[in-house]
């Protein structure tokens, strides 16, 4: 339960809605408990007036609510019995309408409040996701992140809405009913209450069983969904490996587990509700039997009206009491979900704006001074005692074996991770003193793994500069060498990409991803092996156009294809997180048995197999 205290800030924010909601629940139940009293009065009144049973009649208005007394004095002004009954019936109808009206208002306030809280909470979780760093995303799966923002937030909403409504409803109904029952007859109240402790024990045990089984169902469902999701997204691999049957068996196994758990839950529930009905039935039986005996023997002032009143009270208690189990499980589930949400919300990202960090206008000078970096999760030392000084406007090519630390270098520049030691400076300013969003805004990065959104081509390119006009989008696409192909699509720049649109080739995706970075016009631009899927000729053409674009920009181009590196100011060869060769093309070619020279010769002779070159 303590986990749910994190919701306190939301309840406080929506305190007016919550307060009025609780008031409406109470008011609705108050009007509800008045009608049995009127029924009691009217039955007693008719009985007395017509001397039907000949039994003595309770005199006075003892045990009635103050409002009911007012109704009674109003009703009894009429002399005819028929009129009295008619007016009393109209008042009972009005009470039912009032109850309905306040129930409507109760839903309008409490359920609406829960939707507001859900909205706020989803935003809170999403904002936190955006702030968390790579280290966090490495250790959590997409499924887990999605579950927390969708499933867990929904379960918490069930608590802030329906569960709170049920709890307040339950408490006020029990309170009002028992209060007026005691007012009417203490003895009968005691008998009616006898089954309650048994009911509480049943509810407790059955509910924990239901809770356990629901959790198992949830886990089975999660497996089933993950399984289905992977089957859809990996359908090409499944088909090409001819594994449809294996996947189907896997799916049916998961389905079978889910079915068994669901049936087990249905069995428990099948016992639960009838048992509650049985015990409520026993209460009704006691009311009629004991009440009847008291009435026959003229004891404790029990009248026909009292018996009817009690039967209605017991019926009123049926729903709230049978909802205790459901409500308790709603609260338990919400507490578990909020605990999972708190685990995420409490994480402080390691890479964050340092106090005093300010936005700067970057010009493009970059310095790495003795930088070291080890990936915390794998312990791999990706960058070692790294020194690199890049002048403003310089064009640097970075090559080297796979896993030599090229991408890590780019990640450190974007502050996806912070270096363990040493310092990175941009325009002579420690990178940590630069406002994080200002830093990332001014560095264009084209990652190795292309990711495009399920949106139009234009919007995907414009993602780099949301206020860019069509001309800028076209200009960026032209430099990236993809404009002609886009214009060839039926809807041009409006073409949808992804599941609901065209399927792009790997090379087209890479070039759209490049256009997205180019449109930003940043002072620093990093291309991370982003032309691997285009042919050498197209790469040369793009490089040619990029030369002019990159004229006044500092650029770092990570690549495995050396023949395209000729027009760079400097070429670096990385190995095990260090620069092992550095210089112009000519200088590197002179290094006997150098990595670069070997790679160049191999690629010139037509073998583009870097692995060969790396041997
Ligand atoms: N997110 C990560 N978590 C843990 N280890 C990582 C992570 N990313 C990379 N590494 C490791 O760090 C080392 C350097 O990786 P990096 O991606 O920088 O190499 P690279 O030179 O860019 O390789 P490639 O040419 O294949 O892209 C590798 O040994 C890699 O396994």
Automatic annotation (TrEMBL):
Keyword terms of this UniProt record: ATP-binding, Cell membrane, Membrane, Nucleotide-binding, Transmembrane, Transmembrane helix, Transport
GO MF annotations in UniProt: ABC-type oligopeptide transporter activity; ATP binding; ATP hydrolysis activity
Span of domain ABC transporter: 366-601
Tagged with keyword Cell membrane: yes
Protein name: ABC transporter
Any Pfam family hit: ABC_tran
CDD domains: ABC_6TM_TmrB_like
Membrane topology reported for the UniProt record: Multi-pass membrane protein
Keyword Transmembrane assigned: yes
Organism: Niabella ginsenosidivorans
Location of the ABC transmembrane type-1 domain: 21-333
């Amino acid at each position: 339960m303590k986990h749910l205290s994190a919701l306190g800030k939301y309840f406080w924010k929506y305190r007016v809605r919550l307060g009025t909601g609780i008031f409406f629940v109470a008011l609705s139940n108050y009007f509800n408990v008045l009608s049995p009293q009127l029924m009691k009065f009217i039955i007693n009144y008719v009985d007395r007036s017509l001397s039907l049973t000949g039994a003595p009649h309770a005199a006075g208005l003892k045990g009635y609510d103050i409002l009911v007394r007012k109704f009674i004095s109003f009703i009894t002004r009429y002399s005819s019995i028929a009129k009295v009954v008619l007016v009393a019936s109209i008042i009972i109808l009005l009470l039912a309408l009032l109850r309905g009206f306040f129930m409507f208002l109760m839903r309008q306030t409490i359920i609406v409040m829960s939707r507001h809280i859900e909205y706020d909470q989803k935003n809170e979780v999403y904002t936190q996701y955006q702030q968390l760093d790579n280290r966090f995303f490495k250790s959590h799966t997409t499924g887990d992140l999605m579950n927390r923002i969708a499933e867990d937030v929904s379960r918490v909403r069930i608590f802030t809405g329906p569960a709170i409504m049920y709890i307040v409803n339950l408490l006020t109904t029990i309170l009002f009913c028992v209060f007026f029952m005691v007012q009417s007859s203490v003895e009968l109240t005691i008998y009616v209450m006898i089954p309650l402790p048994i009911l509480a024990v049943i509810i407790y045990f059955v509910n924990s069983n239901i809770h356990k089984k629901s959790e198992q169902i949830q886990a089975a469902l999660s497996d089933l969904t993950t399984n289905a999701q992977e089957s859809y997204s990996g359908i090409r691999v499944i088909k090409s490996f001819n594994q449809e049957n294996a996947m189907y068996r896997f799916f049916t196994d998961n389905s079978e587990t889910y079915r068994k758990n669901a049936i087990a839950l249905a069995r428990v529930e099948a016992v639960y509700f009838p048992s509650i009905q049985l015990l409520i039935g026993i209460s009704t039986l006691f009311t009629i039997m004991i009440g009847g005996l008291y009435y026959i023997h003229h004891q404790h002032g029990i009248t026909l009206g009292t018996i009817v009143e009690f039967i209605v009270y017991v019926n009123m208690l049926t729903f709230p009491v049978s909802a205790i189990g459901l409500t308790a499980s709603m609260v338990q589930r919400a507490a578990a979900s909020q605990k999972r949400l708190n685990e995420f919300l409490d994480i402080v990202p390691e890479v964050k704006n340092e106090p005093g960090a300010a936005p700067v206008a970057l010009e493009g000078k970059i310095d790495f001074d003795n930088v070291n970096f080890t990936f915390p999760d794998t312990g791999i030392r990706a960058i070692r005692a790294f020194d690199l000084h890049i002048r403003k406007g310089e064009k640097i090519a970075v090559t080297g074996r796979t896993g030599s630390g090229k991408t890590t270098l780019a990640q450190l520049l974007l502050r996806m991770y912070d270096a363990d030691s040493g310092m990175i400076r941009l325009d002579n300013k420690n990178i940590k003193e630069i406002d994080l969003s200002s830093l990332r805004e001014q560095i264009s990065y084209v990652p190795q793994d292309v990711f495009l959104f399920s949106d139009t081509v234009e919007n995907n390119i414009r993602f780099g500069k949301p206020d860019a006009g069509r001309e800028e989008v076209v200009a960026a696409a032209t430099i990236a060498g993809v404009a002609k192909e886009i214009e060839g699509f039926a809807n041009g720049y409006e073409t949808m990409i992804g599941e609901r649109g065209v399927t792009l080739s790997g090379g087209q995706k890479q070039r759209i991803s490049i256009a997205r970075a180019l449109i930003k016009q940043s002072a620093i631009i990093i291309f991370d092996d982003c032309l691997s899927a285009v042919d050498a000729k197209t790469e040369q053409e793009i490089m040619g156009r990029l030369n002019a674009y990159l004229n006044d920009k500092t650029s770092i181009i990570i690549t495995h294809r050396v023949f395209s590196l000729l027009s760079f100011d400097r070429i670096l060869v990385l190995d095990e997180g260090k620069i092992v060769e550095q210089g112009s093309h000519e200088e590197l070619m002179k290094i006997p048995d150098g990595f670069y020279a070997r790679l160049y010769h191999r690629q010139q002779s037509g073998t583009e197999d870097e692995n060969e070159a790396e041997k």
